[in-house]
Records
---
Amino acid sequence: MIEVTDITKVYAGKTVVNIPRLEIRQGETIGLVGNNGAGKTTLFRMILDLIRPEQGGILSKGEVVAGHEHWKDYTAAFLDEGFLIDYLTPEEYLYFIGGLHGQHKAQVDEFLITLMEFFNGEILQRGKYIRDLSKGNQCKVGIAACLLQKPELLMLDEPFANIDPSTQIRLKNLLKELNKQQGTTSIVSSHDLNHITDVSDRIILMEKGVVIKDIATNSSTLKELEDYFAVGQIERNEAPD
Ligand SMILES: Nc1ncnc2c1ncn2[C@@H]1O[C@H](COP(=O)(O)OP(=O)(O)OP(=O)(O)O)[C@@H](O)[C@H]1O
């Protein structure tokens, strides 16, 4: 579904992403992990054509993402609050997003009923603008807007970071259901190794812009990642070859 070929991204003379080849197949659930500054968000932004690589290219279903529009019909992403319209209420925003995808208000309402548990009574009918919600609740609105679109490709940047433990568990269940029932391909970044290994069938580990590990998740993956991150980046770089 996604093919990355020979991309580099440079900021202020420093290469922050350098990926010779990466393929994400339809229906895969990808967990993207890596320490702060590893390049995860930059990779997301390039896949979404929000920024362009210095060289190389990214294809989505065989079409170059840069300068094309078709992939936007089947791709939903929430990277940060910048994806929301903060002067709207959650309902207004979700009706707006539903409308862009040809859904009537009643269809959106019907869908939102399925998210009542995920919203935990904090999102709808509160008379609040999105800008006045907590960061965690803004994140819930962003994720809900993605799910509403019934995307073939879902991309979430650190969705577990600001939400409470109950919502984290509900989100994991939603992601698993989405993949099982709709075959959704997902790319989710996280610093929570437990959650991300639980919801992903493949883990991509980045460090300093480079893919260090690309492994199918199995019963020993969590331990393997914990062992990897237990050794600091500086210690790793100083270790003899
Ligand atoms: N707009 C920008 N201008 C300059 N440098 C940038 C910019 N965006 C990202 N970078 C740099 O690129 C590198 C990768 O950043 P990125 O945000 O992709 O990492 P990340 O893996 O998502 O990190 P985190 O886990 O902290 O969110 C960092 O060194 C960051 O400072």
---
Amino acid sequence: MPLRLLEYTSSNDWAGITSWLVRRDAGEDNVEPLVRDILANVRDRGDEAVAEYTCRFDCPSLTPTQLAVPKANIARALEQIPAEDADIIREAAANIRDFHLRQKQNSWITTPAPGTTLGQLVLPVDRAGLYVPGGQGGETPLISSLLMNAIPAQVAGVKTICVVSPPRKDGTLNPYILATAAILGIDTIFMCGSAWAIAALAYGTESIPKVDVIAGPGNIFVTTAKRLLVGQVGIDMIAGPSEIAILADSTANPKWLAADMLSQAEHDPLASSILISSDNHLLGEVKKELALQLSSLPRQEIASKSLAEWSALIHVPDIETGMELINRLAPEHFELSVAAPWAWIGSVRNAGAVFMGHSTPEPVGDYFAGPNHVLPTLSTARFSSALSVDTFCKKTNLICTDQAYIGTHGSKVARLARLEGLEAHARSVEQRLENP
Ligand SMILES: NC(=O)c1ccc[n+]([C@@H]2O[C@H](COP(=O)([O-])OP(=O)(O)OC[C@H]3O[C@@H](n4cnc5c(N)ncnc54)[C@H](O)[C@@H]3O)[C@@H](O)[C@H]2O)c1
Ligand SMILES: N[C@H](CO)Cc1c[nH]c[nH+]1
Ligand SMILES: [Zn+2]
């Protein structure tokens, strides 16, 4: 099985690693002209364009009036999935809600000096649009994507939440997606996907509301549309292909490590799975395990491309050096697979999420524990964070001063204004001094 074996002894080896790892080109430039056309067409022709694209790509007969999923179908979907599955989804949703409730920030005000009250209003956006990927023609419903995007929006207090997802060939959505929406109390769902769904949410159509923030993962057409709309509508993040980096000592189990690497490799041929260890024997065992476990995976073709092209086993002299490499990689998911993970947590500077110790496999975070699984990729964890309640909030500054404050400080404001050559600013304050 082709898989890179690398040596990292110091920062001198960094260039060799970045040269192939840090820019996984998904070919966004190639699809950009097509996506620009789609955006313009939906902006100008609304539902009609959305329905046309949907018929061309996803299901042959869908009229503009059929884009919205009837509310009754959403409620009924809960009867179409096994009750045990609904219970698992409810439990995951409760964990995710509990975690995100802790992120909620309150508005605050303060009185730093007599005559002045200052503060910050933390307000939810009015409307959010959530993209739920089709998942192999609707056959692998991305339940967790809906949970991870909708719950932070709900906790933020967003009043209008619209979900979009591409329909299956028969013009329906997977009942698991509808049932999850029903569990969450979401009843506004539109059957459309790809760049035209993102365009509809950004511009609004006859049936799809124009939203303030668009969140949710998707393929290259979805991602490119989101990238082109930055600045016109709030965008959660431009999430790239999944990544996992594991730092393991000799107490780690090679079978577990290989399974964890494959868990992300199966997402995408562009996914990246990196194992870093000072134990050469362990690295060799993991390599054997990867070949063994890969052979029985349904998504073997995807995972093997990811392993061959974007993954590696990296030998380091010690854990300290491994940690330095992790901080340079700034991975989306970082598994700290060592005997005493808490002893190392203070050294972690750049990672989307950290999975502590041998018994914390990454998929626990993907689905169930509570923290969000929409995380910064491609080294952007150096400066950005997981999707959160904040994604759906904005902060409005609050300033209140009285006449006494203007009397004490007004002339200083006027002086600063005149230093900038802005006379009208200065007079605005002086009006209150001269004509109280
Ligand atoms: N980062 C995360 O949290 C996360 C989670 C889940 C999925 N993902 C990613 O999301 C993506 C999901 O992809 P998917 O296919 O399952 O669903 P998707 O909904 O993103 O893509 C399917 C849509 O793209 C359209 N499409 C196909 N070919 C097209 C073309 N040539 N031009 C325009 N549109 C076209 C389809 O008709 C359909 O509407 C994957 O890349 C996966 O890695 C990321
Ligand atoms: N690991 C993905 C983010 O990189 C999220 C996900 C969704 N479903 C399973 N996993
Ligand atoms: Zn995953």
